[in-house]
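can u do me a favor
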């Protein structure tokens, strides 16, 4: 039914017990799965022989000695005996709810992922106990913590879904998130199975990685992984799933469209800022309009960019355009909850509008704007000074 493949860490210390527990849990799955272990790290060959598991020792590694994801996926898909594939991190304990979930997916193109449960679990599980799953689930419910949707530890997909995978270093950041992104690009259904699968992750250290956890997340391999992924725009999480597998069936997720819109808006605003830095105002305005059309929930960045555009127009003497932009700031700021940022933008905006109207010889309008500035920022010295001059002009 299913080919399950993985690349274990060296079998030593707590990691040996954790990985043995995981592999034995996979062997208990029914219907029986094909299991393939990749790599030649300490103990892998012996464990594969002990449990009668297929073992492929040759794995392409980078200069740090870390296995590369593209090599694993390419080889696994070539030698698999089944159409359905599952890459699972070698420390994840699975139970029969895993296969039950897969059997309920009636789609040709899909990627099934889900959140894991973190727990302190150092002992060898008693797999000869027919109720081992029941005992483990009770323990996880009592002491386990559901991991954030950013980390992903299992990927179920039809053979051939992933063809051109970058040479990501396994065990470092971003590669798991890229797989979700790529499945979305390919038009596959990305299915969040968290509600129906309890994937158990015993807590462990990072002694197997240079510089430990810091190296996994911020080291040179992590930075390279992010570059290979195409940057943070391609770092998707389980929250980007298009479907959710629930106890009563598969349903379309409601959040992924919102997240896509927010991500697109963020990208447009980044482009806008780039054009602003180059004084390319037309392009900046075009990108800003596209971002505004998406009706983002967070207006702070839009307010900030409108403010910057208004300031640039004012500095270059384009007073009509500056007035238009600062009025937009006032309008958007009404949709922002009261905060220091809101006061800073709105108070400063009314000051700029006062200066614009002063330069346009619109004295009454200027006075009104300076007063509004002082209502929001009572200690604005320049606004006080100019307002005093406008209300009580000196007679020479």
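np, heres the sequence
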């Amino acid at each position: 039914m299913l080919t399950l493949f993985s690349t274990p860490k060296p079998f030593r210390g707590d990691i040996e017990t954790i990985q043995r527990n995981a592999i034995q849990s996979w062997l208990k799955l029914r219907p029986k799965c094909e299991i393939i272990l990749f790599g030649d790290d300490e103990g892998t060959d012996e464990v594969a022989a002990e449990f009668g598991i297929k073992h492929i020792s040759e794995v392409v590694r980078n200069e740090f000695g870390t296995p590369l994801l593209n090599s694993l996926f390419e080889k696994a898909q070539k030698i698999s005996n089944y159409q359905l594939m599952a890459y699972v991190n070698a420390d994840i304990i699975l139970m029969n709810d895993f296969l039950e979930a897969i059997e309920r997916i009636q789609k040709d193109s899909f990627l099934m992922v889900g959140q894991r449960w973190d727990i302190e679990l150092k002992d060898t599980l008693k797999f000869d106990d027919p109720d081992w799953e029941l005992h483990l689930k009770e323990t996880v419910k009592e002491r386990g913590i559901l991991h954030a949707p950013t980390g992903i530890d299992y990927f179920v997909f039809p053979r051939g879904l992933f063809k051109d995978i970058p040479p990501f270093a396994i065990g470092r950041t971003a590669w798991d998130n890229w797989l979700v992104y790529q499945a979305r690009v390919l038009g596959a259904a990305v299915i969040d199975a968290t509600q129906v699968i309890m994937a158990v992750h015993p807590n462990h250290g990072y002694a197997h990685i240079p510089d430990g956890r810091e190296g996994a997340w911020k080291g040179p391999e992590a930075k390279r992984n992010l570059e290979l992924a195409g940057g943070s725009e391609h770092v998707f999480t389980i929250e980007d799933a298009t479907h959710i597998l629930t106890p009563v069936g598969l349903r379309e997720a409601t959040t992924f469209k919102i997240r896509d819109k927010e991500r697109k808006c963020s990208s447009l605003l980044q482009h806008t800022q780039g054009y602003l830095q180059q004084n390319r105002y037309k392009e900046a305005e075009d990108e800003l309009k596209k971002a505004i059309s998406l009706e983002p929930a967070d207006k702070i960045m839009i307010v900030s960019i409108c403010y910057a555009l208004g300031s640039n127009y004012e500095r270059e003497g384009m007073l009509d355009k500056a007035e238009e932009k600062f009025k937009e700031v006032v309008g958007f700021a009404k949709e922002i909850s009261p905060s220091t940022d809101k006061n800073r933008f709105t108070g400063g905006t009314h000051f700029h509008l006062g200066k614009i109207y002063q330069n346009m010889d619109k004295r009454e309008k200027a006075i009104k704007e300076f007063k509004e500035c002082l209502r929001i920022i009572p200690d604005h010295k320049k606004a006080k000074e100019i307002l005093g001059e406008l209300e009580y002009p000196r007679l020479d």
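The CA atoms of residues 312 and 318 lie 9 Å apart. hope that helps!!
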